Every structure is written in structure tokens, then in C-alpha cells.
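Teaching assistant here, posting this on the class forum so everyone can see the example we discussed in section. The complex has three components, and the goal was to see what a joint structure prediction looks like when all of them are supplied at once.
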Amino acid sequence: MMGRHRLLNTLSHLVLCIGVLITVFPIYVALVGASHTAQEMAQSPIPLWFGHETWNNLKTVLWGEGPGVTSQIPVSRMLWVSCVTAFSIAVGKIIISLLSAFAIVYFQFRFRKAVFWGIFVTLMLPVEVRIVPTYQVIADFHMVNSFAGLTIPLIASATATFLFRQFFLTVPDELAEASKMDGATPMRFFWDVLLPLSRTTIAALFVIQFIYGWNQYLWPLLISTEERMYPIVMGIRSMTAGADSQVQWNLVMATALLALLPPLLVVLCMQKWFIKGLVDTEK
Amino acid sequence: MPWVLIAPQAFIVLAFFFWPAGQALIQSLQQSDAFGTSVEWVGFANFLSLWRDDTYLASFKTTAIFSLWVAGLGISISLLLAFFADRIVRGAWVYRSLLILPYAVAPVVAGVLWLFLFSPSVGLASYILEQWGLHWNILLNSNHAMTLIVIAAVWKQISYNFLFFLAGFQSIPKSLIEAAAIDGAGVWRRFWTIQFPLLTPTTFFLLVVNTVYAFFETFGVVDATTKGGPGKDTAILIYKVYFDGFKAMDLGGSAAQSVVLMFIVIGLTFLQFRYIERKVNY
Amino acid sequence: MATLELKNLVKRYGFGTKAVQVLHNVSAEIHDGEFVVIVGPSGCGKSTLLRMVAGLEDITEGEIRIGNKKVNDLEPSERDIAMVFQNYALYPHMSVFENMAYGLKIAKVSKEDIKKRVHAAASALELSHLLERKPRELSGGQRQRVAMGRAIVRQPQVFLFDEPLSNLDAKLRAHTRLEIQKLHRELATTSLFVTHDQVEAMTLAQRMLVMNEGRLQQFGTPEEVYNRPANTFVAGFIGAPPMNLLHEMSGIDTEMILGIRPEHLHIKNASHADGRSDAYSWAAQVYALEMLGAERLVYARIGQEDVVLRTDVTSNAPEIGGTLELIAYHHQVHWFDKKTGLRQS
């Protein structure tokens, strides 16, 4: 019954290879593009194999010296901004969500329901929907062009709180009772028992939130008016601002590589947790 | 004690969610003069003028078409890939690792990469298309522009959809497939009559997620590539909100658009929870 | 080591008209070092009672005194008790050693003392070679012993057991029962053990607290409960097969229920004289047989009532459908009031 095994198998691999080609090709092109000079990248068709200019291009772009640099601020600064932002968003979100989920699941208090739904509602309001007024709040707090302004509005959404809540609900009540009998205060229980058990969930969330923070575009576009506070995804955009023929594609590709490598590495290294986290959240 | 724990999230949620959302609602019912010094209540006038505004309606249409393409292509392609990935035994993790790469790429970077590939002067794709006699130009041809943003947006979303479909396939008990095989169903029939129906929750879920993605998260793609052009032909709604609010300084109109978008998201999320039997009981 | 006093305990959930009362005025005095089993069907309130002693449930009315100290308002960790949970409640990410040491660590016991106590408990429970393992690497029986070890190291005044054997298979259950008995002989700590299994209750208890629907039915030794059940519930709950309760029998007071244990119902044979004045005799029709190996159960119908008899296997099996004459000696028969269900002596 599973007869046409061989044919189907070959077909499967074929289709998957094509799929992989499609997904990997642009990244490959970026790798190639970053390894040539501007002249080599200005001809059509562009070379399909690697050149020798990778290090030079990276140097140019990272430290802002050399021909063809368009922005005042070197990309290394922008990399730093992205790093700090992404990391802060991921860590910040994880911490406050852990605490909120803990409170919601393990404590009985008035308005618990209201708090729960209040947080739930935030799931329905991505930042893009409230850009103008949120910008005004930031401006009022004098947080424009600051790391705080870049990160804080993005750490309050409920996805993480939800994930942790779902997870905490799977921890047997008996564990909390046993710890009570052992004399542990709630915070002690949280630290000694709940947190260690949540390790996988935290790892998964970290990956997702880090990528989310790193890839933020619209929000930094509004908040960061000074180039020194640009995350790298904004920097790369400004490099393509000119007319098509003027663009230094080799530098753009080098920057693109820098822009996509950190999240890529995070995804690859933490693949297992990340996939588990993604799929488990929604199921 | 619990209040201390909730305080941080509560504070941020209040300050950066509810307050701005409320503000957006209020502003949508107001109109400021050209200098931004005075505001007057105009009730639903902003919404009405949106309704009558051709460019807004056009933007709506553009967004609808865009999201249909993105969701449709995104789901079909990833379904196909997941189907085959589920069948093979060897090398599955290699394919999976490679197929999830685009997830890590920012929409705006994806836009830049595909912009490069389709660049009229040096793009590989444009080169190939030229060989076939097609003059590629996103600055002048709206269809080309739309094609570009659709491709970039779909490319990025394939990973996400793929992961969910793969998980969906793997959660179908093997015994069901085997029973169907014993009943004489071939591969194709097994897919259509057993696997696909059982994937309906996943498909529906992804439809909603992809639509939300197309509506909101593709801002970067548009800004990196067509910037809404040519003219306003690829100005999806979120792009218009940004443009009107920050470039054209039409706060009232932009707020009204935000409110409309808010309701669309709420509607979609509501759908997602109600019909996908999410365990949001309390 | 302490006495445990339960005084007029009431437990209510909810308020006003929506209130559900789960425990009705339960009182009992448990002696120092006694092993008491709380037994009853599901929903009878036994777990609630145990949890109130543990401090995991509030006490609506009444008092609990441990060693003559009122503990109503004390936290579980302040009551000097330890509990063994039904699902063991072992911390999955901690080793066996750490699981047993956790409570002591919080109580700021010195490291050497912790080591001493944990090792002592581990060797008593044959866990010494498992101290570095994680719970998921252990079998059900081993996890059960770790849960007990965790309770033992606390050296509490009272042990609480919440149906700890329910998740074990039959063989392991029997084995662990013996282990618990052995432990109790060694440690002689006052213990409160909850179970729904009356066999466990009978074998482990020095005294049994039989409960039903939130009310204390009888508190006595296994012998007392078995031989002199206080009401029809206890009579029918303790003993397997349960006591036969006959309501409508010819020649019997209609206000009374007659109770006779399956082993006390005999089939009339040659050794029984006819027309005895110290025994009842009835005609019954056999409708089923169950061969258990060491004995045979005979199911018969007397008039409208079904009864069960335990017979030995040396005599021939009665025929299904055949008639028998059954004998019950007056002194082995129990009488209960039909209205109240209470025992009439």
C-alpha cells in the first residue's frame, strides 16, 4: 500500500530542495554580495560566487570609513543599538510576564479577572495600531531617542504572560502545597521551584522576543530621529534610499548580513526551544 | 503581594496601551487645524471623510488584495513543504533548519534583499526576466510593485507557517493514515480526505495570523521597497496611517484610520479565539 | 509525637444560600503515636478533613489541636507536621537528596544535620543508592518512598498521608502497606492516613474514622468497626463482599433491617439440626457463582432480596437455579433501625 515509495520519496526531496533553495537563496545572495567590490556589484548579472572583499566591506560598513559610506554613524553603533534593544525587550518582557503570570495563577485577589482580561486585550493591539498617541506619550515622558523609548512600549504585550500562564497551569497544585508544607514563602516557591521548571519556556520566549525586538522597524522609525539611535534595520533601509543605480549594493549586502546574522544564529542554536515555544503557545 | 507582582506590567499596559488607545479613539473624533494649536470635536466626520476618500478606499482595496495574496501563497506553499517534510525520514532536520531561516530576517531586511534581487539595474531576477523580454520596473508598474512586496512578505512568512503545518501533520495519529491506506486510499486521497480536514484548525489559525501579518507587520517590507508607490498603489493601510500621521501631519485622519485598524485586529483576534477553541476560560 | 484533637470541625464553601457544607461537626481524639485511618467513599470529606489538619484548607468552625496547641491559624510549616501526597509532589528538577532536604534548608537546619537526617531516612527506606537521581528516573514505588522520606526527615509531630497508595499497582500497594506498618513501628509518630480502600484501612489502622457525606459514621478499632458496625453505612462499606442487609423478611420486625455477613450465612447441610431456635432459616434460589480459588461466592435470592455467601471449596458447588436452605445464627445477626440506619443492640 505504501507502494510508490521510491518515487514519492524522490519527489519529496525534490520539492523540499526547491523550497530550501527559495528560502536560502536571498541569504546566499547577500553573502555573495557582501564579498565583492562596489564595481563588481554594479554589473548585471552580478557574480554568483564569492569574491574577496568581505572583510573590507564589513570594515567599511562597521566603522564607517572608506568609499561609499552614506550615513554619519557607523553600523557598529547601530548593531549595538539593536543588540541592547533586542536584549532589553526580551529580558524585560520575560521578567514582567513571569511575575504577572505568577500572580494571576497562584494568588486569589479581587479584580483578578479584570486584570487578566485587561492584559488579554493587549494581544489585540499591536504597536502599529497605536503609533501616533503612543508616540505622544513617549514624547511627553521625554523618552524620544532613548533606549527606554525604544524598548518599554514593546514589553507590555500579553503574549509572554499568556505563555507563562498556560505553563504554570500545567504545574500540579500539589507542588505548591508541598512547598507550603516545607515552609517556603510564595516568592521562595517561585524562585526554587517554578522558575527552574520554566526553563524551556523561558528559552523559547527569549528567542522569539529577541527576534521580535531586533526586527522592530516601524516603532524605531518614529522614536529615533537621531542616527545614533538607529537600530541596524533602520540603517540598512536608509542605505537603499537613493536611486537604484546609486546604491552600493556590496555595502548594503554587508549591512544586511550584519542585520540578519544575530537573529539567525539565535534561531539556529536555540532551534529546539524556539520551535517548541512557537507551536506550544498557540496550541 | 500579588499587586506588587502585577504592578510593572499593569503600569506599562496602562501607560502604553490603554492610554494611547483611548487617545487614538478621542483624536479620531477630533480635528486639529493646520498649525496644531486648536482642536475641535467633529464627531464621526473623520470617519465619514475616510469613507468618502478615494485614496483611503483604494488603500483598503490594496491591503485586501495584498493580504489575500500573502495569506494564500504563504499558506499553500508552506502546506506543500510541510506535507513533504512530514513524509521523509532522512535529513528532515536539515530541511527544517534551513526552512526556518527567514523567520529570523526582519521584514524590512527581507524587503531589501528582494529589492536587490529585483533591482532593475543589477537584480538577478530582473536580469532573468529581461532575458524573457519582460521589462521589470517597480517604479512605474504597479503590478510589478505589488508582486515584489508580495514575494518579499510571503518569503518571510513561509517559515512560520511551515512550522505550524509540520506540527499539525505530526499530531495526526499515524493509525488514522494507516487505516485509510488499508481501506485503499492512495497518497493523494489520504491527504485530501484525512490530513487536510484534520488540519483545518491549523489552517484557520494561520489564515488569521497571516492576515494580521499582512496588515501590520509588513510595514517594513513596503518601506524598504516601494514606499507605497508607484503613486499610492502599494500603500497598504498601515503605511497610510504612518504617512498621514507623520508625514502629512493629519492627526485626526490618521487616528481615525488607526481606530479602524484597531477594530479590524480586534475582530480578527476575536475570531481566532472563538473558533479555534483556544482555552481562554478563566 | 503528639495527640491530635479534632473538635466539632465544620467546613463550608461559599456564602449564604449558595453555601455547600462539606463537613458536619466532626470530632475525634487521636492518641499520641496512634495510626488512624480516615476511610470513606469519594466525596465523603476525608481529604478535606486531612487538608484542614495540614493547614491547606481553612477551618470554617471548630478547632484542631496538635499536642494540645490550637493550630487553626498557623501556617502548615508552623504546625510541625509533614504530608505525603497522592501524586508524591516531588520537585522534578531536584535530586532525591535535594527533595528530602528542601524543607530542612528553609528551616535553616545546618548542613551536617541535613546530611545526617537525609541519609538516615534514605537508609531506612532503602533509597541510599538513589540520592543523586531525579524523580523522573525513579519507578512509582521509589518515588513513593522519596515522598515518605521527605516527610520523615522533618521529624514532625504528626504524619499526614493523602491516599499515597492509590497510584501503585496491586502488588506494590501490598508491599508498601507493609513498609508503612514497619515504619510506624519504628518511628511511632502519630499518623493520619486517608484512603477510600477499606482493605488498606483495615490492615493499617489502629483505629478507623469511617466517614460518609461529611459525617463521622464510626470511630473505632478495625475489630469494632467490623464486628459491631454503628450503622448500615459502615456495615455495608467495611468488608468484602459487603454485609448482606435484608429489609423485608418474613418473621422479622418490619421496623428493622437484618444484617448478616457473607461468611455467617451457611447452607443447610447434614450437620445443621432442623428447626433450631437460635437460628433463622430461609429458602433461597441460587443465581450465580464466583470461584475465587480459596473460597466460593454464592449469589442467591431470598424472596425479593439478593444475598451473597462465602462457602469453602471442599463441598460441592450448588447448582445455578437450584434452591438452598440458608441458616443464620441469631448471635451473628446485626439489627439496624430501618428509619435511622443505626445499630440496635
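For the discussion questions: The two ends of chain C are 37 Å apart (CA to CA). Chains C and B do not touch (no CB pair under 8 Å). Think about how each of these relates to the inputs above.
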